[in-house]
Amino acid sequence: MSSRATRGAALPSGMSEALNGNAYEDESNEDEEVVVEGESSSDEDEEEDVIVEGASSDDEEDEDDEDDEEAEEDRAAAQSAAKLKRATGKTAEASKDAAKPRKFRGDEDVRAEGYASSDEEHEENTIGNVPLHWYDEFDHIGYDKAGRKLVRKEGMDEVDKFLASKDDPFYRRTFYDAKNDQSIVLTDRELIMARRMLEGKFPEQGFNPEPDYVDFFSGEKNVFPIADPYEPKRRFVPSKFERQKILKIMHGIRAGHVRRQGKPESKKEAKNEVYLMWGEDDLAEDIKKRRKAPKHIPAPKVTPPDHRESYHPPEEYLPTPEEAKAWEEAHPDDRKINYLPQDFAQLRRVPAYANYVRERYERCIDLYLAPRKEVRRLNIDPESLVPKLPKPSELRPFPNTVAVTYFGHHGRVRSLAVDPSGELLASGGDDMILRIWEVESGRCLLSHDLSQYAPEENEEISRVTEDGEGEVSTKKGFISRVAWNPQMQYRVVAAAVGENVILVDVSAASFASEEDVEATEQLMGGALAEAGEGDDDDDNEENAEVAEVDLGAEASEEERMQQALRDSRRMVGWKKDKADRTVIFWKEADSGPVLDLIWHAKGVYLATVTATKRSNAQVTVHHVLKRMSQRPLRFVKDQRVQRLLFHPRKPIIFVASKRYVHVYHLGQQKRLKQLKTGSQWISSMAIHPDGNNLVVGTYDRRVSWFDLDISSKPWRTLKYHKRALREVDFHDRYPLFASASDDGTVHVFHARVFEDFDKDPYLIPVKVLRGHAQTLDGLGVLSMAFHPTQPWLFSAGADGRLQLFQNLG
């Protein structure tokens, strides 16, 4: 009995308590006696007794007789059913409806399920294994498989439970399932199974735990045995016998007793060997191996003739008189074919080919002089060479849709600039009007007419690259460059018109505070200017006639400052116009138009590039508060400066000539390095916010990416635009890079730069923005800039429109 008890399964506490009592007991009948664990009955009738738990003395004596036990169990089940019928007048199966809302599982359901599972047979609540007290504050206890709420039923109080224990015959065999909120009544068969488990037996009657042994191995010997025994250890340990044998062979080789196979022949034998030189016999393959000359490469085959070379070609292959005349007038090197197709009715009427001897001679010359080499084709899948790039939707946000279009300019819009707060936009072009726009609404807030600063003669300066790509027309009578002061406290926009730089106060349109208005007035008025360096008038000519004095190496710092002030007065003048705008003008006679201007990050320094004939006077740096100007760059000789760019963190300025970018340290007054772009004409520059990567755009459609910490040559050179490149720019916050071109498109890239030097920058194209039309002179997008805080992009085109691209959809 103890051996079977170990096979039994544990039961819930409620079930064991029910089995300790009488599941069929009717307490109103006092003549019936219940046999419980530890007690026995001797005088009462066996038909009225229910054996619930434990084992009788007869079972202990007759433990090995399994048939008697099964008969006893069947008899006990029959007695229980008879007793239940006498007590209620119904069978357990017929009382399903009486036990509602309890759930009664009949024997047929249990047999159909095969006792395979227990917990998941009638699971209606699908909340899983979570604490039920989570649903105490709700009127439901979970959800069914269809997702509907399982409403909590009204339970019985203590009085109802007591009445049910007296009236309900199934009360002792009923269990409450709190998870599914239902009552379950155990069947007769389930009670029998529970009793067998409590006795340490198998739940199913007739189960044989010790079946007869079946010998599935035959006594016959097979070539391939059925069993697969483990590999012996000797197969994994080196053999000592083989080791001794190998040592013996090695000793023989060293002593010369054992000769190696395939030993090379001696030099005498190889020298006296005779082989067939010209013939082709069985030794041909061996001769090919011994030949020291280069491998024979067959001559390329002549191109087979086509329909045009026929003596009677189809009519569509015959040239017209105009085509025949054009072929005869063309140079022989420019002709697509070296003959003129003709039509003959019969083959015997075809004359001799005049160029036959010449063509055969040129063919022989080509075979004799033209080098040939064998090219081995690699069997590589082309798709495997293409890098796997992420989807553009995974790299959002980036601008993709035109959101706002700004109308108002007449002619080309050559430059634009965005307010540091991102609320305002400044633009200028051929109409000589500086316009201030509200970004979100597209409304023009301010407009300044700067046509009074245009030169009297409306000249045009054409600049073309050496390879003919990207023509740049610099017209004096237009706003060539617009730049917004990067400091929020200075609401100033700088515009380059002809030989002047105009500083415009836009605090009235930007809703500035009183502190910002005061700071802007100080910047516009030159609050830190030295005495005598006020606004220049036509009457104040003596400042312009100050001569340059060489102080020498022993001059004091004060003397040098005074000399710098005199040089500044001689080079540049400052004045106020009628509209209270500050104008910077050059007093030198040979000064040219302003090509580029850029603000320093501090907001008080302004650098300009002029098209002067003196190469060392092209770059001028202005201190707006002190109203002083200086030319710190003396190294740019015989090179025309195109663009300027300040480093975002260091006192370094990037100066771009036609082909090179010079990196100049302003504090040390020396050139650090020279970047070689490999292009013909530089058009624009942009530096990454970290300051270690520089991108250069050129008029010959190239984008050169420089890693300033690694090399002075481009890390990558890209060529994806169809026409000249006009502008390149990085976003200050998002990993975005964009380039604008005369083909009317703006290409947007996901550009991520890593701090780790082992990782290359991550550059992936995500969107091509098309919103501007090409003009008749072949111009498209002339300027472009990112929004300072949002993933938006502004573009200005030769069609006279400005557009805002946002991240929509």
TrEMBL record:
Family annotation (SMART domains): BOP1NT, WD40
InterPro entries: BOP1/Erb1, BOP1_N_dom, WD40/YVTN_repeat-like_dom_sf, WD40_repeat_CS, WD40_repeat_dom_sf, WD40_rpt
WD repeats, residue ranges: 406-447
Domain BOP1 N-terminal positions: 135-399
Biased composition (Basic and acidic residues): 93-112
Cell compartment(s), UniProt: Nucleus, Nucleolus; Nucleus, Nucleoplasm
A biological process term (GO) from this entry: maturation of 5.8S rRNA from tricistronic rRNA transcript (SSU-rRNA, 5.8S rRNA, LSU-rRNA)
Acidic residues bias spans: 24-73
Pfam families: BOP1NT, WD40
Positions of region (Disordered): 1-125, 291-312
GO cellular component: nucleoplasm; PeBoW complex; preribosome, large subunit precursor
Gene Ontology molecular functions: ribonucleoprotein complex binding
Keywords: Nucleus, Repeat, Ribosome biogenesis, rRNA processing, WD repeat
Family: Belongs to the WD repeat BOP1/ERB1 family.
Function noted in UniProt: Required for maturation of ribosomal RNAs and formation of the large ribosomal subunit.
Name the UniProt record assigns to this protein: Ribosome biogenesis protein BOP1 homolog
Source species of the chain: Hondaea fermentalgiana
